[in-house]
Write a structure and sequence with these properties.
Helices cover 42% and strands 15% of the residues. The protein has 382 residues and is an alpha/beta fold. The chain folds into two domains: 238 residues, Aspartate Aminotransferase, domain 2, CATH 3.40.640; 122 residues, Aspartate Aminotransferase, domain 1 (Alpha-Beta Complex). The strands form four sheets. The chain has a seven-stranded mixed sheet, sandwiched between helices. The protein has a three-stranded antiparallel sheet with strand order 7-6-13, with no helix packed on it. The chain has a three-stranded antiparallel sheet with strand order 12-14-15. Strand 4, helix 7 and strand 5 form a beta-alpha-beta unit. Helix 3 packs parallel to helix 9 and helix 4 packs parallel to helix 5.
Length: 382
């Protein structure tokens, strides 16, 4: 291996744009400047249509982030003073959206594949019923585009009990479970275009929903909750969650090139899977029937002390450790524990996972020799 390559920093992400990518984006910017509508206009509609072309089961609405998308959904279905059963293994944004919409946060556990647990959702539901708390929604989080067949059991359970199923699909774009794209299983979903995501525009997101009526209504919830019959009157409590045209154009350009970039992410993921030989580090397989987008390669250390050691070795070798998914779950977040509307529960699988998993770099700009350098570093851990 080249000595210079051994010393080169391996970053968390390193987005590159081809000459063609730049030409497309420049043409989009020219059109935006010509039209002079800088928010929620032509490119927002183009982005929504482009997503709908492949995700036919849902309709799409641009919004300023996955967080605001979730908040708009929760406000629209009116979770105020009602419980939302939420996967604890998620970013604080999910809890923020529930809290902002006035809901009661009730965390649920992961199953043995480290995705949403149907059994613990049922336990959380009956836990709320025992305390005479109405359950409004279940929010599953498709971390790294991973989901199991249990998501369909969750879907049927929600339907039987008149509960909304919401997917936090911030990390799940292009991922599948059986013949569904993730984000299409629930009634509502939120997507993210944050800088490191599979489709990236710096900031931005999408809301999706299965019914046209809900799409039309949610468009009012991204615009301060305006009255659909009178744009000067505002009847619902909401916020300004609209997306800028520049962010929409960037996301559209990135969406159009995402197919090839996903293939590269998958190849990198397979390099980790096929070449990892340490007996103390394990590759986390996708659940059966799940085709993730390989936003993250997830590895499991045999214990927390070993993960700490790996983190130290990475720092010494100038290898970035990407953001975990997640190191501190909602049920251990100080901010969540301070919420007055929060019901604490014991979540053993979540806490086990958060203590041992880690996510080495995986993004299309990584060269094979970069990946093999990371793998060689991991294989040296015995």
């Amino acid at each position: 291996m080249n000595t210079n390559n051994e010393k080169k920093p391996i970053r968390i992400f390193d987005i590159k744009y081809s000459t063609r990518d730049k030409e497309i984006m420049h043409s989009y910017v020219d059109q935006i400047l010509e039209e002079a509508y800088l928010s929620n206009h032509t490119f927002c509609r183009k982005l929504e249509s482009a997503m709908h072309e492949t995700h036919l089961k849902h309709n799409f609405i641009c919004c300023s982030s996955a967080t605001t998308g979730l908040e708009a959904i929760f406000r629209y279905i009116n979770i105020k003073d009602k419980a939302v059963l939420v996967q604890s293994n998620t970013f604080i944004a999910t809890a923020h959206a529930i809290d902002s919409a006035g809901g009661i946060i009730v965390p649920f556990d992961l199953n043995n594949e480290y995705v949403a647990s149907f059994e613990d959702i049922k336990k959380a539901y009956f836990f709320c019923k025992e305390q005479n708390i109405e359950v409004s929604a279940v929010c599953v989080v498709n971390i790294a585009g991973r989901a199991s067949n249990e998501i369909f059991q969750i879907k049927y359970f929600c339907e039987e009990n008149n509960i909304f199923l919401i997917e936090d699909n911030a990390q799940g774009v292009h991922s599948k479970i059986k013949n569904y794209y993730l984000g299409e299983v629930g009634q509502f979903s939120a997507y993210s275009f944050q800088t490191t995501k599979v489709v990236a525009s710096g900031e931005g997101g999408l809301i999706s929903c299965s019914k046209k009526e809900d799409e039309n209504n949610l468009r009012n919830f991204i615009s301060f909750g305006k009255d659909p019959n009178n744009g000067l009157n505002f009847k619902d409590i909401s916020g300004n969650f609209k997306l800028s045209e520049l962010n929409a154009a960037m996301a559209l350009m990135d969406l159009n090139r995402s197919g090839e970039r996903l293939k590269r992410r998958k190849k990198i993921d397979m390099l980790y899977k096929n070449n990892l030989s340490s007996k103390k580090i394990f590759y986390l397989e996708p659940p059966e029937g799940n085709i993730p987008n390989f936003y993250k390669t997830i590895l499991l250390a045999s214990n927390n002390d070993l993960r700490t050691e790996i983190e130290s070795i990475f720092r010494k070798k100038n290898i970035a450790m990407t953001g975990y998914v997640y190191k501190i779950p909602l049920n251990l977040q100080k901010r969540v524990l301070k919420f007055s509307k929060y019901l604490n529960r014991h979540l053993p699988n979540t806490e086990k996972y958060t203590k041992c998993h880690f996510t080495p770099p995986n993004y299309p700009e990584l060269e094979d020799y970069d990946v093999m350098r990371i793998i060689d570093t991991l294989n040296s851990v015995n």
